[in-house]
Amino acid sequence: MSTKDELFIKEFNNLKNKVILNWFEIFMLSLVAFLISLKFLTVLAWESSKTPLLFSIGISLIITWIFIYLKKYQLSITKFDKDNLHKQISQE
Known about the structure:
The protein is mainly α. It has helices at 3-43, 50-71, 79-91. The relative contact order is 0.16.
């Protein structure tokens, strides 16, 4: 293997790790937003036990969507990303 191939594999693995960490961060954000909103909504002591649960799911999805929109998470690796890595490595 040439050094360019090794460098590409290293950079591609870094990119894969970044995508995996982004998905993990989104999952944890959704979970924390759900648990916090569920806690606040159950304090309101609504009559039905399902209503706070449904509202918490909705609130956590809205909060997660806002963070995804504002932070511009990279959630997948496209062919353009691979081509861009090849260009960067060939220029070095």
